[in-house]
Design brief:
The complex is a heterodimer of chains A (256) and B (226).
Chain A (H helix, E strand, L loop, with lengths): L5 E9 L8 E10 L5 H14 L22 E2 L2 E2 L21 E5 L8 E3 L2 E2 L2 H8 L21 H11 L6 H5 L6 H12 L8 H14 L10 H5 L7 H15 L6
Parallel strand pairs in A: 1-5
Antiparallel strand pairs in A: 1-2, 3-4, 3-5, 6-7
Chain B lengths: L10 H26 L9 H12 L1 H30 L21 H26 L12 H8 L3 H28 L8 H27 L5
The chains are: A alpha+beta (256), B mainly alpha (226).
Protein name (chain B): Succinate dehydrogenase / fumarate reductase cytochrome b subunit
Keywords (chain B): Membrane, Transmembrane, Transmembrane helix
InterPro entries (chain B): Cytochrome_b-558, SQR/QFR_C/D
Chain lengths: 256, 226
């Protein structure tokens, strides 16, 4: 952890659009405060680029407090950078040293085409959700507490799965660009609760089919996704999805 | 169309095949290792030859051999299909990828380890399986059984064969270290009460099986087996 301001070399992926080829471009940055967030450091760089008349670097960001899932930089070979359980916006420059060279790339997956520079199109995730990541009931007003008894362990596991912000770090870090951690979290958050039961086995089949259609890779259980997930989504969710998928295909009498 | 739909062609279904065939091969290795370890009786291979004779003459075992080859081929072909698909899923590679920060190298190298095992397997099958099934074992032992032990003792006089077998068993150890627990996870057998057991049994199994197998050519070459 450094205290004084630092000088850095950035190697940033620049790509005009998904039709053109991109390349890493070097930028020198001086006098960066260790208290800045990684995205604020990019704001400084972009301001300098704009003042010079250059095109600023396009990158995704929104809430900047680690809950929206928009920021998506692959920093020195790891999604959201070197710290565990944080998003890029929660990463601070004190995690780097004066004189460091930092390589910043977009998420790389066939299912996440580059839009421009560091921004990728993650609408494949939206289509997986649209394929079944919901419950088809009119929920109406909130019911009285404890109207539906749910064991504490079950409720906690559902809540932990629901913490997924859909940033795509799991896909980005997986050697196979597999989306199984994301899809299994979105299946589990409903499969664990009573409201999710009527469509439980339809849902797993539809969402897995959509995941495959989007061109994500296959899981090889390296565990990289769990290690890099900013929300600590567990591999247990993938096992649950696999179990539900097997039940749906081999035990359920309903075919879809 | 049958009610099973894309049960085995989907991403998860293909993984089921990897997991089921993998666990089947894990069971096979136990039997294979147990029979081979009979050479350690140091009785000129008499006990080992009894085991080998039983394996060659029992029709249930011979039928099982067909299932074994089908399972092995399924494991290999499915792995190839999955690997090709996975490569297509990331057409542009990262300039910098810090894989060691989030996963074990052998979990990321199952294809490489498996390919090394396949090369070994071709040599291994031509050393023993082809001899015992097709070209014929030349001599018989004191019990009148085909002397497969003599074939083994002769084969392991070659230092290069011994080195190849030893290296292959290192590959096998790492392949199993990931594969054993991974198969359970793929088949959905992830449970807080059993995860620890699966993990430790997997580690012990991988190390013991590989060590025992590697000890055979080394011990024969070193003249420790009589």
């Amino acid at each position: 952890m450094s205290t004084g301001n630092m000088n850095l070399t950035l190697k940033v992926w620049r790509q005009k659009n998904n039709k053109t080829k991109g390349a890493l471009v070097d930028y020198k940055l001086a006098d960066i405060s260790p208290d800045m967030s990684f995205l604020e450091m990019f704001d400084v760089l972009n301001e300098q680029l704009i003042n010079k008349g250059d095109e600023p670097i396009v990158f995704d960001h929104d809430c900047r407090e680690g809950i929206c899932g928009m920021c998506s930089m692959f920093i020195n070979g790891r999604p959201h950078g070197p710290k565990d359980l944080v998003t890029t916006c929660q990463l601070h420059m004190r995690s780097f040293k004066d004189g460091d060279t930092i390589v910043v790339e977009p998420w790389r997956a066939a299912a996440f085409p580059v839009v421009k520079d560091l921004t990728v199109d993650r609408s494949a995730f939206d289509r997986v959700i649209a394929a079944g990541g919901f419950i088809s009931v009119n929920t109406g007003n909130a019911q009285d507490a404890n109207n539906l008894p749910i064991p504490k362990m079950q409720a906690d596991a559902a809540f932990e799965a629901a913490a997924c912000i859909g940033c795509g770090a799991c896909v980005a870090t997986c050697k196979n660009a597999s989306a199984m951690l994301f899809v299994s979290a979105k299946i589990s958050q409903l499969a664990l609760l009573p409201q999710g039961q009527p469509e439980r086995y339809r849902r797993v089949q539809s969402m897995v089919a959509q995941m495959d259609a989007e061109g994500f890779g296959n899981c090889t259980n390296t565990g990289a996704c769990e290690a890099e997930c900013p929300k600590g989504i567990s591999l247990e969710n993938i096992a649950r999805m696999n179990r539900d998928f097997a039940s749906a295909k081999f035990i359920s009498e309903e075919t879809i | 169309m049958s009610g099973f739909g894309n049960a085995f062609s989907s991403s998860i279904g293909k993984k089921f095949i990897m997991g089921i065939t993998g666990l089947f091969l894990v069971l096979f290795l136990i039997v294979h290792c147990f029979i081979n370890a009979l050479i350690f009786f140091n009785d000129g291979g008499l006990t080992f030859n009894i085991g080998a004779h039983f394996m060659a003459s029992n029709w249930i075992i011979r039928a099982g051999e067909i299932v074994l080859f089908v399972g092995l081929l399924a494991h290999i072909f499915q792995a190839l299909r999955l690997t090709l698909q996975n490569q297509k899923a990331r057409p542009v590679k990262y300039a910098v990828n810090a894989g060691e920060a989030n996963s074990k190298w052998y979990s990321r190298s199952m294809g490489l380890l498996g390919t090394l095992l396949l090369i070994f397997l071709i040599v291994h099958l031509s050393n023993f399986w082809v001899v015992s099934r097709f070209t014929g074992i030349p001599t018989v032992d004191a019990n009148g059984h085909e002397d497969l032990y003599a074939v083994m003792a002769l084969t392991f006089q070659n230092i290069w064969i011994v080195i190849l077998y030893t290296l292959a068993m290192i590959s096998l150890c790492y392949h199993l270290l990931h594969g054993f627990a991974s198969a359970f996870q793929t088949l959905g057998w992830n449970h807080s009460k059993y995860n620890g057991i699966i993990k430790s049994v997997g580690v012990w199994y991988s190390i013991l099986i590989s060590l025992l197998f590697a000890a055979m050519p080394i011990a024969v070459y070193a003249g420790l087996i009589h």
